[in-house]
Amino acid sequence: MAREAGVHISTASRALNPSTAFIVHPVTVERVAEAARKLGYRPHPLARGLRTNRTMSVGVIIPDVENPLFGPIIAGVESVLVEDGYSVLIGNADRGPNHADSLVEDMLERHVDGLILATPGRVVSDTARQAQRDVSMVLVNRSVDDDSIPAIVGDDHAGIGLAVRHLRELGHERIGHVAGPEWVSTGRGRRDAFLAWMSTVGLEADIDLVEEAEWYQVEPGTTAALALLSRHPDLTAIVAANDLLGLGCYRAVRSLGKVIGVDVSITGYNDMPLLDLMQPSLTAVRVPYRRMGVDAATTLLALIAGEDVSPGRVLLSPTLAIRSSTGPPADRG
Amino acid sequence: MAREAGVHISTASRALNPSTAFIVHPVTVERVAEAARKLGYRPHPLARGLRTNRTMSVGVIIPDVENPLFGPIIAGVESVLVEDGYSVLIGNADRGPNHADSLVEDMLERHVDGLILATPGRVVSDTARQAQRDVSMVLVNRSVDDDSIPAIVGDDHAGIGLAVRHLRELGHERIGHVAGPEWVSTGRGRRDAFLAWMSTVGLEADIDLVEEAEWYQVEPGTTAALALLSRHPDLTAIVAANDLLGLGCYRAVRSLGKVIGVDVSITGYNDMPLLDLMQPSLTAVRVPYRRMGVDAATTLLALIAGEDVSPGRVLLSPTLAIRSSTGPPADRG
DNA sequence: GTGAAAGCGCTAACAT
DNA sequence: ATGTTAGCGCTTTCAC
């Protein structure tokens, strides 16, 4: 052990710890550092944690690791936390609604220093709320209605605005919306944004132009789009609340014998990989997911450091990837 | 603390630990359990780890978390480890070739009980090799040439066989291969498998029918396919070493004015999400990635438990998802 | 500026 | 079947 090699006992501890090294004579510091290097000594994080009550680890709870959306978030989170010496514990809450809570408890039990939740929903469970008393916590890609927990989310209002304005500028006047489930914060938020933007661009904000899909998947998207198009056969464009819903719209439009991007333009949301390879490639609002992860981790670090972070949400600006699923409306005979 | 609430001191420890509870009087066990529940007591994993030298955590090192391929692997790994009380530490080695090594060292420093590596390459770094002395280690989705570390990998020979036989059965006789880079184990392996299967099905195993793509991406796939098709304009089918390469072939075939699935059939490999939504949908060899994660974790657990696991590779059988990018060869004028 | 000693919360001998 | 004791490897008062 470094202590034997270099000099004496706990001076080594002080020397090796940046925040106490200044107490120690520079020469001694150097000697200790040298010895540590030579012996390949590494402080044992468990022993340290036991003493300092910090594990230098944070838990990240993801609703479904298999969803490509979360890769960039995890990467972003990891990149900043690793920099500060933290490890990232992944929890995959794919076993139903209560699974996330049980993961939160696991993480608490492990005494993580912080928690990042990406699980959906507009309210947070009691478990999570209680957890907030014990550890620093931040939400990513979702928020709570009362904004009581800091959240990093995409600016859905701006994103939907990008899509609606793009369509409006192309000349569309009859635009519909295939919405996500209302109990998910993005489902509700994007729907509201759609209606708001319709007014803004001078079109009628009719709730009847919205059809809610049961879930963010292709199949429900098709169903919803068919319902929407049967109510409003004259629609020339659909803003989908999600890429998969957008792809679902493809099927609906095709089954009606219409051409995507000509008879009916479609926009997606999120911009997942491979969208540019679809036929036609899907115009989509791109959300900066990696950035989201980075910001969430940064916020968490600030929280852990005791800086006071205002709760409430931080909005990240999306961009629009314009592809071939959108075009000017076809002239109507 | 439970000790005060219930009875006396370290009896509680024994009572709470399943593997020592039998020593304690059942009544006492119950009393302790009760008290623990009431006080919301949770054993501190750090203190325990300090004593037992086990952290109940394992590190998983992924070359790129953003690649959708690894989601299922992580999910599989996590699902079995969580069951046994382990936590999963994720390392994202996306910062170049040496990043993985530095992550391995981080993990070692944290005293993980085991390590799962998914980083590519046909040999393992010295760091990793040394790490194997300190902790249990298993490879997933890659192996080492000398099989000195247990590895769970897809059976590429069988997978390519699925593709080649499928095409052969459709009636194809002139089949080419767009290969992955040779320095990656899958690139080399699938190429060899392709040549072997060509002989097996009674076709000529000509190395000239293989074109190596620079990297597993769409663009290089197009380039390679164009080179291949200019050498062999009469090819009626292409086996791609990877889905993205397969999609790259789409572009090449189209740019030649030919129809995919009619003039030229194409198969992919891996079966990533959304492939079924491509136009035409891509026939692909499906690798059981989640299962891979599950098996890797199970093997690791066995290793940790001290059971002797034979090193060498475990091959997981792929299946074939037949879609519309493959069909009988068109009659030639 | 450095040493000595206590103790973080647990588990594992060793008593009883 | 339960209580006692020591100590995992570190940080942190408290002396010197």
List keywords for this structure.
homodimer; 333 residues; alpha/beta; Rossmann fold; 3 domains; 6-stranded mixed sheet; 12 helices; 12 strands; 42% helix; DNA-binding
Give an overview of the whole structure.
The structure is a homodimer of 333-residue chains. The first copy, chain A, has 333 residues and is of the alpha/beta class. Chain A folds into 3 domains: 2-43, no CATH class; 56-154 and 288-316, Rossmann fold, CATH 3.40.50; 156-287 and 320-332, Response regulator (Rossmann fold). In chain A, 42% of the residues lie in helices and 16% in strands. In chain A, the strands form 2 sheets. In chain A, strands 2-1-3-4-5-11 form a 6-stranded parallel sheet, sandwiched between helices. Chain A is elongated and about 85 Å long. The structure holds a DNA duplex (16 and 16 nucleotides).
Biggest sheet architecture of chain A: 6 strands, parallel
Q: Give the end-to-end Cα distance of chain A, rounded to a whole number of Å.
A: 87 Å
**Unreliable segments of chain A (pLDDT under 50, ≥5 consecutive)?**
none
Q: What is the helical fraction of chain A, as a range of percent?
A: 40-55%
Q: Say how many strands of chain A there are.
A: 12
Kindly give the count of domains of chain A: 3
- The CATH top-level class label of the largest domain in chain A: Alpha Beta
CATH superfamily of the largest domain in chain A: Response regulator
